[in-house]
Amino acid sequence: MFLKRRLDVPEETPLPVAVALLFYVGHLFCAGWVASSEVFAFATTVTIGWCLWRRLLKPSFHILYVPLALYGLASTVSALVAVREIHSFGESALWGKMLLFPAALILFRNVPRARATALRMVLIFGAMASAMGLAQYVTAGGFRDLEHRITGPTAHVMTLSGLLLPVALMFIVLWIYEAGNLWLLAGAAVTNLALLITFTRSAWLGWIVGIAVLLILKWPKALAWAVPVAIIAISFAPLPLFSRVISSFDTRQSSNLDRIRMAEAGVEIIKDYPVFGVGPANVKEIYPLYRKHDAPRFRIPHLHNNVIQLLAERGVLALLAYLFLQGLFLRECARAWGGPATKYAEIGVVVVASLGAAGMFEFNFGDTEVFWIMLDLFAIITAFIERPEQSNEPVAALVPPDGP
Fold first, then answer.
1. Domain of 92?
2. CA-CA distance, 135 to 186, in Å (whole number)?
């Protein structure tokens, strides 16, 4: 069948399962357009649920379901006990968002070829979004100011940088293993260049941490060369990039001072609401009561830090669930390290390190698009690095674990 051939799955794959994969691929392709991505994600989850009910797919459990469920539980309880229950319905929607992870993993376990198809689509999206961003940059005549940065297919530059960060690093890791692949080299070049010209310092920091972790784990001696190379690169960088880097160390600079004041206010909020937090979406409303007089902004969308935001907004259980999720996924990657799926384990470690570092200066865990691409990558990588499960495919058709 045409659809199954285009999705690169065996002809024996049931049509509803192939349709579910088509919806999932649509979700990945539309990762920058949140409304379209949500529609495809909902269609994916519903279709896979129907396939499970019809026994066209075999259900399965993974330990990562536990921290996700804890996060959903903590968020729901926080919303219900909050003084202002303005986001109770939104926390119901959170459960639907998180269901995408088990739905995708079940799909990959039953149809192993689907994981390679999904991985390719993530890379295609990254290259496409980067090309759109580069086109915007050229059309605008280069860098104008921080209020007019590239957004690609997204609504905001922070979302674009959050999406490009893990994909740019994925291209690098994959190219290291396939140095002769010009497509991977081109993808690495365009995604990393686009990430650079977002002028997003948190994403830059995440990239640096991701590369540093990769070097430490693979070539620790190369780290000694990385520092002087970075210093030379910064010294000879174009003035807008150089100024943006140097501004990171100016505590009186508006955005830097704003983040310091947010952290201070967040700590005070946590002291008053240590268990359940103030409730989802309530930080924006309560922040003016805790801000210091010299904070640049009176109202903020969030506290620009995953740890502080989760603890202040949703309470201690939500923060523990977040840390538990990252830790368990790293454990899975560590188990696969040195085996036939090492490159995917490396991608997993780099993704966690980079998004975690960027999340110390941006609430990327609360950005729907970034949250979803993280879950998507967790599902794809988990499917590649774990032991093969029984599937509906003939043995000869299975994808080898060392390549998409």
1. 2-224+303-397
2. 16
